[in-house]
Amino acid sequence: MSTMEEPLYPIAVLIDELKNDDIQLRLNSIRRLSTIARALGEERTRKELIPFLSENNDDDDEALLALAEELGVFIPYVGGVEYAHVLLPPLETLCTVEETCVRDKAVESLCRIGSQMRETDLVDWFIPLVKRLAAGEWFTSRVSACGIFHIAYPSAPDMLKTELRSIYSRLCQDDMPMVRRSAASNLGKFAATVESVHLNADILSIFEDLTQDDQDSVRLLAVEVCAALGKLLEPQDCVAHILPVIVNFSQDKSWRVRYMVANQLYELCEAVRPEATRMDLVPAYVRLLRDNEAEVRIAAAGKVTKFCRILSPEHAIQHILPCVKELSSDSSQHVRSALASVIMGMAPVLGKDATIEQLLPIFLSLLKDEFPDVRLNIISKLDQVNQVIGIDLLSQSLLPAIVELAEDRHWRVRLAIIEYIPLLASQLGVGFFDDKLGALCMQWLQDKVYSIRDAAANNLKRLAEEFGPEWAMQHIIPQVLEMSTNPHYLYRMTILHAVSLLAPVMGSEITCSKLLPVVVNASKDRVSNIKFNVAKVLQSIVPIVDQSVAEKTIRPCLVELSEDPDVDVRFFANQALQTIDSVMVS
Amino acid sequence: MTFAVDIISSIEFDRTGDHLATGDRGGRVVLFERTYTRDHDGNRRDLEKMDFPITRHPEFRYKTEFQSHEPEFDYLKSLEIEEKINKIRWCQSANGALFLLSTNDKTIKFWKVHEKKVKKICDMNVDPAKAAGNGPVVGPSIPTSYKPYTANGGCLDKPLGLSNDFSFPPGGVPSLRLPVVLTSNEMSLVPRCRRIYAHAHDYHINSISNNSDGETFISADDLRINLWNLEISNQSFNIVDVKPANMEDLTEVITSAEFHPTHCHMLAYSSSRGSIRLVDMRQSALCDSHSKLFEEQEVPGSRSFFTEIIASISDIKFAKDGRYILSRDYMTLKLWDINMDSGPVSTFQVHEYLRPKLCDMYENDSIFDKFECCLSGDGLRVATGSYSNLFRVFGCSSEASTDATTLEASKNPMRRQVQTPSRPSRSLGTLSRGFRRGADSSGVDTNGNAFDFTTKLLHLAWHPTENSLACAASNSLYMYYA
């Protein structure tokens, strides 16, 4: 046991702690592996540190995960790309552990290292590693193997390429569904590296096997492969091989597979090009929109706008719109909700006439939906439809919907609608707003739930920003100030909060003439909570107003509060006084 | 003296048949491992007493045990949660480690049991003894961190903050060295709880079952079945819910549920009214509507007060090929073909002689006992337990129910009511763990009349590939080879 000279001592501890009992210390050491490596030098890192780490595969998952990540960026510390292969053995062991996230990270690091390795090194070191993993006794290593083929394949000589392809095809027929799943989800990446001759022969047959797998969980991963393969194949091959599979999948027995198709359909359409889309995929999509499983309809409904964009308006009106109508009265609220969140986007696609004639009734019926989420989703996308048809047509049905949401039993619903009020205000214009919504905004200030009152105060600020101080002077300030004498102290506090938010927007003059007197008045409140909030508000007003006002009005008020019997009031008053002092100095 | 906590409450072979797990009322899981070679050195102590000096039957030897569940208290509902293991299911093993799921009434746990080489670390850079003599050294060989450089590497911030500018000599610092890890040949078995799937059941969990896809499993309580991903412990999907809007309308509860052995989308569950429902998960996300219903029509005129009670199915098992389902109700075992929903293929009477005594059974609550059932790996025989530590084995080929054997789970098995002495059956004695827990305590009358309702054989499992059975009678585990 040697004694360390001073600067090395921490490094020595760091190295020792690689084997500490405390996981936190081990983790910390692993995170500093690069420091340890630099201290040991490149050669000893290669010869001692890396083999040392390779043995360490029964550690906690957390430590293994960190190790897998660090090794991915370790090439500089072992002496550069020419020595990159020494990093493979520890990662190979990490590829076999049973915790998925560790394996995934090890695979990621292997890919990162492999993509930097020299071609000859790949053949000498990386490809044998791929083969070993793929032939592993436990499914864990075979699962990992699937994820690194695309790195190994391009550098392999022809003989090896043939072998790699056949190994991959074996993995796709592995006994373990986990391995087949991994092979399916990595097939797209692997296919992208395979020459087009073999793509048509080998890869397509692998793909076909996967599409007929017994396990739903494998088949549904093959759906994603459709899109990836579609982009690689020639258009005619794509129509011949991929399209029938997609059409089949859209009628698969398992709803999970159909759900994947519904979710991926847009990508699939892109892969098979527009002509085929119109011919074959529109009927498939229509079937999905009418699927008897609600989950599938939810996924399909959510894609309706995206899908319509790749169709001509006529096609969309002819085929999709009738389904949309049905969905707007679907028995599942989640389907209607998904539809409501995207349906507004159809307006620009269909154009003004079709929108007014066909979509408007659907909007209106969704606006009257019994389920608040549906209504909210429509309202949140109001700007999109406004651009196409103008607000007038909507406003009549909009208002009852908003009023109803504004008074909903659930405060989260009320909160959601408040957040859309500034958007609505900008879309509806001042006139409409004054007539109909102004009163609501004031009403929320006296809501029973704090979050709503808080949001209401914020809303007033945003409205003042939207319509300008002059408008606010007429339509907000008088009403707000009127409430400052509410018998309930919590409501008086909301007003104080609103004042502090409004002051910066309204500017110095209005603040001094209108807002400040109310605040000063509130400093004589009998509730201490109000009083220390007054101190806080005054503190926030100080930078806005003139120094003279601060001295003449605010300071005396704060001085009085600083002598209050309540300790909190004194505390905040003194803080505010300090702010005045510092403003004065500057 | 039998302690209640030692009573075995669950028993299960793994897929290969090389391992056997039992769970008990004390929340413990005990693992047994099959040994292929017979060794006659004395390390076996009196763990097992051999009935035969030489036998070609493999034996199962105690491997390890661990505390899977602890008693808990649900403060919100003011309910005690027992630690009793209701079910154990083995999962896919990987890297030589064993994985299993165990559950009590509320919480499912995912365990990994693996062998770890005992390691010793030495040759540290910093001598723990010389390190200013502070901080007690916890292990004899592994130094803890030293006071100035303690937890979370707080020490490293300052000195190594420097090290960014601090350049190490190009060849590295020769005086630094890596600790040496000495691996001894000594192995220790380490059980580790990898995941806990909790707070998803309002009622008591009666079954768990893994899916053939290797990534999901289900858990069933009285009214609901939840679907889990093994890797995700904080969410599950409710796929079956039989809870009526009004609890007064409740007419049946789920008693058992199991996944199909090969089709990942199919599962079956049984109910207290004697029906089995087959569910196709492909049809819909919510599987409240079954795709097939298996129920036996009541024989008109046979109805009595007990009809409904004894119809309740206590356990169902898929046969290995997935074509047949075996179910156990109070009086019978029934074998169903999943392609035939008109009635069972065969019915085996388990203890018909109890029929006149149902009133007594009701009085002492025995009528609510939940017997498990099992099928042999080849699907040709079925078995289930009964009272007085008896269990019955039936052959289920064509003239089925005549080929029945009754055996007693004790050290000296006595065959009873043997109708066709088809094959020799013998016991290899008890395999209790470490210490003997009073096995043959109750003097059972061998004439088959006086049955001891307190000694019941509820749990048993058939080896997946061989003709051997593991059964649990109270606190003892017996292996039978046929």
3D structure, described in words:
The complex is a heterodimer of chains A (586) and B (482). With 586 residues, chain A is mostly helical. Chain A has 35 helices and no strands. With 482 residues, chain B is mostly beta strands. Chain B has a four-stranded antiparallel β-sheet, with no helix packed on it. A four-stranded antiparallel β-sheet of chain B has the order 7-8-9-10, with no helix packed on it. In chain B, a hairpin with an 8-residue loop joins strand 21 and strand 22 (346-349). The longest helix of chain B has 10 residues, at 154-163. The relative contact order of chain B is 0.11. Chain B: Keywords: Repeat, WD repeat. Chain B: This is Serine/threonine-protein phosphatase 2A 55 kDa regulatory subunit B.
Summarize the structure.
Chain A: One of its GO terms (cellular component) is protein phosphatase type 2A complex. By secondary structure, chain A is mainly alpha-helical.
Largest interchain contact: A-B, 63 and 62 residues
Count every beta strand of chain B, where a strand is a DSSP E run of 2 or more residues.
30
Mean pLDDT of chain A: 88
Q: Radius of gyration of chain A, rounded?
A: 34 Å
Rg over C-alpha atoms of chain B, rounded to the nearest angstrom: 27 Å
Tell me the structural class of chain B: mainly beta
Average pLDDT metric of chain B? 79
The coarse silhouette of chain B is globular
InterPro entries (chain A): 2AA_helical, ARM-like, ARM-type_fold, HEAT, HEAT_type_2, PP2A/SF3B1-like_HEAT, PP2A_Regulatory_Subunit_A
Protein name (chain A): Protein phosphatase 2A subunit A2
Keywords (chain A): Repeat
GO molecular function, one term (chain A): protein phosphatase regulator activity
